[in-house]
């Protein structure tokens, strides 16, 4: 193929679907994303990355991917959240993988609240909280356990994510009725306020749930400001994006923040097999930190 023909092809593609993601720019993005997010992008992901990042180019007023790469070089932290949000898929729902909540309600929360009734803190971390459904579902079962037992234990949920859009949604706490399918009618009445006016067809989480949840930005691969210890960490459908060495480092760090005998919850398609000696499998994608 002649140079003129290649140029004509690129021009046609650019005018038809936006600028092309060239080899140099894609390799830069692959290296950047792996270093900053631990996500390994294969060559097969090029078209997906190109399509999803076109919106960022338009939002930033950039004409090509070379310009976007330059933005990342100049201000990696400023654009990192937007980039990670664009290339990952935040699929979440209320009470997803219900067996995890059944374990909390039936066994763990009563045990923890009893053990801590004379002092101590109960802490749960939702790592990769996306748009907030997970931490608010956790807050529902926690609030119900506190009410049921009359406990005054200092109990809180930390919710973190890298995506600015997801965190904004989580902080707003407003969800369409279609996204609340996993919530029982009783819990809808108890823990949500029906929206009116511009929020018609949506509902807002109850202020009591907001009191229990702290929402903060966090890159799991960077420094963590919190020191724990946590009684449980939920990291579901997050490590599917990471390669083996990144998973191993992350699980080791989780073990360092968990109480002895603390619990780590993974997603339904995730496993810790062969990745850590600090945990033992105690249920479906439920791992318990070993007590040395």
Automatic annotation (TrEMBL):
Annotated CheR-type methyltransferase domain residues: 21-292
Origin superkingdom: Bacteria
EC number: 2.1.1.80
GO biological process: methylation
Broad enzyme group: transferase
Keywords: Methyltransferase, S-adenosyl-L-methionine, Transferase
A single GO molecular function term of this UniProt record: methyltransferase activity
Reactions catalysed, as given in the entry: L-glutamyl-[protein] + S-adenosyl-L-methionine = [protein]-L-glutamate 5-O-methyl ester + S-adenosyl-L-homocysteine
Known function: Methylation of the membrane-bound methyl-accepting chemotaxis proteins (MCP) to form gamma-glutamyl methyl ester residues in MCP.
Protein name per the record: Chemotaxis protein methyltransferase
Organism this protein belongs to: Dyella nitratireducens
Taxonomic placement: Bacteria, Pseudomonadati, Pseudomonadota, Gammaproteobacteria, Lysobacterales
């Amino acid at each position: 193929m002649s140079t003129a023909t290649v140029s004509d092809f690129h021009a046609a593609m650019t005018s038809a679907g936006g600028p092309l993601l060239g080899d140099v720019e894609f390799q830069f993005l692959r290296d950047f994303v792996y270093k900053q997010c631990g996500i390994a992008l294969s060559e097969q992901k090029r078209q997906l990355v190109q399509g999803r990042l076109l919106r960022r180019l338009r939002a930033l007023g950039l004409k090509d991917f070379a310009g976007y790469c330059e933005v990342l070089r100049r201000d990696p932290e400023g654009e990192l959240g937007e980039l990670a949000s664009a290339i990952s898929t935040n699929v979440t729902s209320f009470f997803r993988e219900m067996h995890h909540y059944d374990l909390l309600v039936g066994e763990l929360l009563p045990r923890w609240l009893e053990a801590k009734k004379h002092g101590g803190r109960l802490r749960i971390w939702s790592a990769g909280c996306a748009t907030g459904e997970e931490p608010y579902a956790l807050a529902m079962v926690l609030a119900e356990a506190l009410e049921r037992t009359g406990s005054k234990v200092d109990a809180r949920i930390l919710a973190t994510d890298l995506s600015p859009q997801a965190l904004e949604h989580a902080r707003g706490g407003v969800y369409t009725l279609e996204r609340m399918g996993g919530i029982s009618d009783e819990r809808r009445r108890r823990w949500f306020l029906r929206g009116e006016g511009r929020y018609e067809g949506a509902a807002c989480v109850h202020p009591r749930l907001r009191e229990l949840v702290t929402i903060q930005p966090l890159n799991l691969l960077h420094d963590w400001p919190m020191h724990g210890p946590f009684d449980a960490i939920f990291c579901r459908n997050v490590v599917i994006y990471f390669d083996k060495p990144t998973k191993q480092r992350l699980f080791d760090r989780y073990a360092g923040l968990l109480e002895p005998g603390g619990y780590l919850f993974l997603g339904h398609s995730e496993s810790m097999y062969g990745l850590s000696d600090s945990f033992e499998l105690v249920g479906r994608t439920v791992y318990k930190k070993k007590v040395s």
